Amino acid sequence: MYGLFFALLLITQQLAAQPQTTTLTEVVQLAQAQSVAAKRANTQQRTNYWQYRSFLAQFKPQLSLDGSLPNFTRSYVQVTQPDGNIRFEPVSYNNSILNLSLSQTIAPTGGTIFVQQQLQRFDNFIQSSTLYNGIPFGIGVTQPLFQFNQMRWDRKIQPLLYAEGNQLQIESLEQVSLSATNLYFDLLVAQVNLQIAETNRANNDTLYRIALHKLDMGKISQNDLLQLQLSVLNAEKDLASARQTAAVASLKLKTFVGYREESAGQLRPLELAIPNQIPDLIVDVKRAFDEAVANRAGSIGFRRRMLEAERDLEKARKNNGLNATLTAGYGLSNQGPNLLDVYVRPQNREYVSLQFTLPIMTWGRAQAIVETAKANRQLAQQTVEQDKLTFEQEIFTQVTLLQMLNQQVTLTAKADQIGQNRYQIAQDRFKLSDLSVTDLGIATQEKDRARRDAILALRDYWQAFYTLRLLTLFDFETNQKIKY
């Protein structure tokens, strides 16, 4: 009974120690779920969300309480006498004030309307007197005239910035997928090279032993035997290099995707599956471009950049001309030695003021600022137009590349199969003394080249596949927009 238990335990440990085959889809999903790059993209999206919430809050009523409590002073102050002399009189007082206000911005005009209540208490400790002053009710407005209205432009630009930030988060996660794909194939190519090196080492060792018997039988020359011995040594060297390259590539992939080992200090091998099954996609260039325009952050950025250029031009014009601010208010106010005196038969309180600034002589400074803004707007237009052309060219290039690579994968897979079959035939012929060592070496090289070309073609295809997803933010495999 105990023997059976320990046998099962040993089998379980051996199975757990065996490398697990991981697919490309699993690696991409793992990278999107727990990689540092994915977490950073999600954090940036949350920052973008709260920045937009902060912007929206500016256009809602703001209730605030401000004041100075206490505001105590004990000192000597300068007092001018009727005869012109100066005396320094002692003072000791507390002048506290509280102000409760409710304000609302007016985005179309850039002004602010507010309602307030205010209470002030003055205590003169030298004279032992107290006096109250207050505004039971007050309403007012502050309205800039002929000035640049930042709020009106923010209402146009900030929603675009928010939408752009959301799409940037999706693009960042798609970039994570592309980076994970690149690292996946770096490791896969290294593992294939390692398999090739292990196979070549074993085959060369077997062929070298066969050649030793052929030499005794006089069916092979000493030179051919030395060439096979050299092949064995080169295979050993290639195997050591392939192991080191595979180990480094495995560590890079695990580090990027946040792969966690089950036991601390133990690096289990990560065996990758070859993604031979590729989706048979027929992508229309116009459809890809339309999806890119609708989904990409760059497309939203084109509109935002033009609005920012127009905003800067208007700001240059308005800030260098007549600027005025109208402030007006109405309310009730009163004062007295008691607190309730403030609220008993209060008097009317009105005020209005108009402050203005009119540049008269600037020596061409105002015109230079405006002309600079015009030039920047023209530069922005030209840059956006160039970026749009590059944007369209990238889509066209990637769609045609994906279609070409689809055929390339099929061709290299057939060449790989032919190379493997040809090498097997060459190996059998060598064993029968019907093939030279040189021809066997050529068959080995072509077999290895065909194998590597097949893997590299798969790598190019999947890189192009995820790059097209990144450029369009559209999944042509499921025919859906990419969302997270």
TrEMBL record:
- Signal peptide location in the record? 1-16
Gene3D superfamilies hit by this protein: Outer membrane efflux proteins (OEP)
Instruction: Name the major location.
Output: membrane
Localization, per the record, is: Cell outer membrane
Entry GO CC: cell outer membrane; efflux pump complex
Q: In Gene Ontology terms, what is one molecular function of this protein?
A: efflux transmembrane transporter activity
* Any Pfam family the entry gives: OEP
Keywords for the protein's UniProt record, in alphabetical order: Cell outer membrane, Membrane, Signal, Transmembrane, Transmembrane beta strand, Transport
InterPro entries attached to this UniProt entry: OMP_efflux (IPR003423), TolC-like (IPR051906)
Protein name per Swiss-Prot or TrEMBL? Membrane protein
From which organism does this entry originate?
Spirosoma radiotolerans
